[in-house]
Amino acid sequence: GESVGLHLPTLSVQEGDNSIINCAYSNSASDYFIWYKQESGKGPQFIIDIRSNMDKRQGQRVTVLLNKTVKHLSLQIAATQPGDSAVYFCAEKNSGGGADGLTFGKGTHLIIQP
Amino acid sequence: EPEVTQTPSHQVTQMGQEVILRCVPISNHLYFYWYRQILGQKVEFLVSFYNNEISEKSEIFDDQFSVERPDGSNFTLKIRSTKLEDSAMYFCASLFDRESQPQHFGDGTRLSIL
Fold first, then answer.
1. What percent of chain B has pLDDT over 70?
2. B7-113, superfamily in CATH?
3. Which of helix, strand or coil describes residue A35?
Protein backbone atom coordinates (compact mmCIF):
# COMPACT_ATOMS: atom_id res chain seq x y z
CA GLY A 1 0.00 0.00 0.00
CA GLU A 2 0.92 3.63 -0.31
CA SER A 3 2.82 5.22 2.50
CA VAL A 4 1.92 8.81 1.69
CA GLY A 5 -1.29 10.15 0.22
CA LEU A 6 -3.24 13.34 -0.30
CA HIS A 7 -6.81 14.26 0.61
CA LEU A 8 -7.69 16.38 -2.44
CA PRO A 9 -6.49 16.00 -6.01
CA THR A 10 -7.38 19.60 -7.05
CA LEU A 11 -7.55 22.82 -5.07
CA SER A 12 -8.73 26.09 -6.57
CA VAL A 13 -8.16 29.39 -4.73
CA GLN A 14 -8.46 33.07 -5.56
CA GLU A 15 -5.29 35.00 -6.17
CA GLY A 16 -4.21 36.66 -2.95
CA ASP A 17 -5.95 34.12 -0.72
CA ASN A 18 -4.15 31.63 1.45
CA SER A 19 -4.13 27.96 0.47
CA ILE A 20 -3.68 24.82 2.51
CA ILE A 21 -2.62 21.54 0.94
CA ASN A 22 -2.92 18.42 3.07
CA CYS A 23 -1.08 15.15 3.14
CA ALA A 24 -1.52 11.98 5.19
CA TYR A 25 1.25 9.49 5.77
CA SER A 26 1.07 6.00 7.17
CA ASN A 27 4.68 5.19 8.09
CA SER A 28 5.05 6.29 11.71
CA ALA A 29 8.81 5.68 11.42
CA SER A 30 9.22 8.46 8.86
CA ASP A 31 11.36 11.23 10.27
CA TYR A 32 11.82 13.58 7.35
CA PHE A 33 9.13 15.24 5.25
CA ILE A 34 9.37 17.50 2.26
CA TRP A 35 7.11 19.44 -0.06
CA TYR A 36 7.89 19.73 -3.76
CA LYS A 37 6.26 21.86 -6.42
CA GLN A 38 6.05 20.55 -9.96
CA GLU A 39 5.22 22.80 -12.86
CA SER A 40 4.22 21.39 -16.23
CA GLY A 41 7.18 19.84 -18.03
CA LYS A 42 9.53 20.38 -15.09
CA GLY A 43 11.01 18.28 -12.34
CA PRO A 44 10.03 18.52 -8.67
CA GLN A 45 11.24 21.76 -7.13
CA PHE A 46 11.98 21.92 -3.42
CA ILE A 47 9.70 24.18 -1.38
CA ILE A 48 10.22 23.37 2.29
CA ASP A 49 11.09 20.44 4.53
CA ILE A 50 10.66 19.48 8.15
CA ARG A 51 12.11 16.87 10.46
CA SER A 52 10.05 14.87 12.89
CA ASN A 53 11.48 16.67 15.92
CA MET A 54 9.63 19.80 14.81
CA ASP A 55 5.93 20.52 14.30
CA LYS A 56 6.17 23.74 12.34
CA ARG A 57 8.59 25.37 9.98
CA GLN A 58 8.24 28.61 8.07
CA GLY A 59 9.75 29.81 4.85
CA GLN A 60 9.00 32.69 2.57
CA ARG A 61 5.18 32.68 2.19
CA VAL A 62 5.10 28.98 3.02
CA THR A 63 4.61 27.10 6.27
CA VAL A 64 4.73 23.35 6.83
CA LEU A 65 2.91 21.83 9.77
CA LEU A 66 3.53 18.32 11.01
CA ASN A 67 1.14 16.49 13.30
CA LYS A 68 2.76 13.20 14.22
CA THR A 69 -0.14 12.12 16.40
CA VAL A 70 -2.46 11.81 13.41
CA LYS A 71 0.31 11.45 10.83
CA HIS A 72 -0.67 14.53 8.93
CA LEU A 73 1.37 17.09 7.03
CA SER A 74 0.17 20.35 5.54
CA LEU A 75 1.57 23.10 3.36
CA GLN A 76 0.23 26.59 3.79
CA ILE A 77 0.89 29.13 1.06
CA ALA A 78 0.14 32.74 1.99
CA ALA A 79 -1.10 35.37 -0.46
CA THR A 80 -1.14 33.02 -3.44
CA GLN A 81 0.17 34.27 -6.76
CA PRO A 82 -0.41 33.00 -10.31
CA GLY A 83 3.07 31.46 -10.24
CA ASP A 84 1.96 29.19 -7.41
CA SER A 85 -0.21 27.22 -9.82
CA ALA A 86 1.37 23.77 -9.98
CA VAL A 87 1.10 20.24 -8.64
CA TYR A 88 2.33 19.93 -5.07
CA PHE A 89 3.73 16.66 -3.74
CA CYS A 90 4.52 15.70 -0.21
CA ALA A 91 7.23 13.13 0.32
CA GLU A 92 8.64 11.27 3.28
CA LYS A 93 11.66 9.28 4.29
CA ASN A 94 12.66 7.04 7.15
CA SER A 95 16.24 8.21 7.57
CA GLY A 96 16.70 6.27 10.77
CA GLY A 97 15.80 3.07 8.98
CA GLY A 98 18.51 3.67 6.44
CA ALA A 99 16.11 4.54 3.65
CA ASP A 100 17.54 6.67 0.92
CA GLY A 101 14.70 7.18 -1.50
CA LEU A 102 11.77 9.48 -0.96
CA THR A 103 8.22 8.14 -0.95
CA PHE A 104 5.95 10.57 -2.73
CA GLY A 105 2.23 11.20 -2.39
CA LYS A 106 -0.07 11.45 -5.39
CA GLY A 107 -0.04 15.24 -5.69
CA THR A 108 -2.51 18.09 -5.41
CA HIS A 109 -3.09 20.36 -8.36
CA LEU A 110 -3.28 23.93 -7.06
CA ILE A 111 -5.09 26.32 -9.38
CA ILE A 112 -4.90 30.06 -8.70
CA GLN A 113 -7.93 31.89 -10.03
CA PRO A 114 -7.39 35.55 -11.10
CA GLU B 1 22.18 28.18 -8.81
CA PRO B 2 23.65 24.77 -9.73
CA GLU B 3 21.25 22.44 -11.48
CA VAL B 4 20.84 18.78 -12.26
CA THR B 5 20.71 18.41 -16.03
CA GLN B 6 19.22 15.51 -17.94
CA THR B 7 19.48 14.47 -21.57
CA PRO B 8 17.68 13.89 -23.80
CA SER B 9 14.51 15.70 -22.86
CA HIS B 10 12.47 13.21 -24.90
CA GLN B 11 13.51 9.72 -26.00
CA VAL B 12 11.41 7.58 -28.32
CA THR B 13 12.42 3.92 -28.52
CA GLN B 14 11.03 0.73 -30.00
CA MET B 15 9.92 -1.92 -27.53
CA GLY B 16 12.71 -4.37 -26.81
CA GLN B 17 15.46 -1.88 -27.50
CA GLU B 18 17.99 -0.70 -24.97
CA VAL B 19 17.88 2.90 -23.81
CA ILE B 20 20.32 4.99 -21.77
CA LEU B 21 19.16 8.07 -19.95
CA ARG B 22 21.82 10.54 -18.91
CA CYS B 23 22.16 12.89 -15.99
CA VAL B 24 24.76 15.36 -14.84
CA PRO B 25 24.28 15.83 -11.09
CA ILE B 26 25.32 18.97 -9.23
CA SER B 27 29.10 18.90 -9.22
CA ASN B 28 29.91 18.48 -5.51
CA HIS B 29 27.05 16.10 -4.78
CA LEU B 30 27.79 12.57 -3.64
CA TYR B 31 24.42 10.80 -3.64
CA PHE B 32 22.51 10.16 -6.83
CA TYR B 33 18.99 8.95 -7.51
CA TRP B 34 16.62 7.91 -10.26
CA TYR B 35 12.85 8.26 -9.99
CA ARG B 36 10.12 7.72 -12.50
CA GLN B 37 6.68 9.26 -12.95
CA ILE B 38 4.09 7.56 -15.11
CA LEU B 39 1.79 10.13 -16.71
CA GLY B 40 -0.66 11.56 -14.18
CA GLN B 41 0.73 9.53 -11.30
CA LYS B 42 3.04 10.12 -8.39
CA VAL B 43 6.81 10.13 -8.49
CA GLU B 44 8.28 6.70 -7.64
CA PHE B 45 11.73 5.94 -6.31
CA LEU B 46 13.85 3.59 -8.41
CA VAL B 47 17.40 3.54 -7.09
CA SER B 48 20.01 5.43 -5.09
CA PHE B 49 23.74 5.36 -5.72
CA TYR B 50 26.66 6.32 -3.54
CA ASN B 51 30.38 5.61 -3.62
CA ASN B 52 30.06 3.80 -6.95
CA GLU B 53 27.48 1.32 -5.81
CA ILE B 54 23.74 1.00 -5.39
CA SER B 55 22.70 1.83 -1.83
CA GLU B 56 18.98 1.19 -2.17
CA LYS B 57 16.60 0.07 -4.87
CA SER B 58 12.85 -0.34 -5.14
CA GLU B 59 10.83 -3.27 -6.45
CA ILE B 60 10.51 -1.46 -9.78
CA PHE B 61 14.26 -1.58 -10.30
CA ASP B 62 14.51 -5.15 -11.63
CA ASP B 63 17.22 -6.86 -13.67
CA GLN B 64 16.31 -4.83 -16.75
CA PHE B 65 17.60 -1.69 -15.06
CA SER B 66 21.16 -0.71 -14.29
CA VAL B 67 22.93 2.47 -13.24
CA GLU B 68 26.44 3.66 -13.75
CA ARG B 69 28.67 6.61 -13.02
CA PRO B 70 31.07 6.21 -15.93
CA ASP B 71 33.11 9.30 -15.13
CA GLY B 72 33.25 12.12 -12.62
CA SER B 73 30.24 13.95 -13.94
CA ASN B 74 27.67 11.65 -15.55
CA PHE B 75 25.15 9.32 -13.94
CA THR B 76 23.23 7.01 -16.27
CA LEU B 77 20.18 4.78 -16.14
CA LYS B 78 20.05 1.91 -18.62
CA ILE B 79 16.98 -0.11 -19.45
CA ARG B 80 18.13 -3.25 -21.22
CA SER B 81 15.01 -4.36 -23.09
CA THR B 82 12.30 -1.77 -22.90
CA LYS B 83 8.64 -2.60 -22.40
CA LEU B 84 5.58 -0.50 -23.14
CA GLU B 85 5.06 0.05 -19.42
CA ASP B 86 8.47 1.69 -19.13
CA SER B 87 6.98 4.77 -20.78
CA ALA B 88 7.25 7.52 -18.18
CA MET B 89 9.16 10.60 -17.11
CA TYR B 90 12.47 9.66 -15.53
CA PHE B 91 13.95 12.09 -13.05
CA CYS B 92 17.48 12.20 -11.77
CA ALA B 93 18.24 13.76 -8.39
CA SER B 94 21.37 14.44 -6.39
CA LEU B 95 22.35 15.31 -2.85
CA PHE B 96 25.53 16.54 -1.22
CA ASP B 97 25.12 14.37 1.85
CA ARG B 98 22.22 12.62 3.50
CA GLU B 99 22.10 15.12 6.35
CA SER B 100 21.84 18.13 4.06
CA GLN B 101 18.53 17.51 2.37
CA PRO B 102 16.75 18.15 0.06
CA GLN B 103 17.32 16.13 -3.06
CA HIS B 104 17.64 18.35 -6.11
CA PHE B 105 15.82 17.13 -9.20
CA GLY B 106 16.44 17.57 -12.90
CA ASP B 107 13.64 18.33 -15.34
CA GLY B 108 13.45 14.75 -16.49
CA THR B 109 13.55 12.68 -19.66
CA ARG B 110 10.27 11.69 -21.21
CA LEU B 111 10.66 8.09 -22.40
CA SER B 112 8.13 6.89 -24.95
CA ILE B 113 8.16 3.19 -25.87
CA LEU B 114 6.47 2.30 -29.15
1. 99
2. Immunoglobulins (2.60.40.10)
3. strand
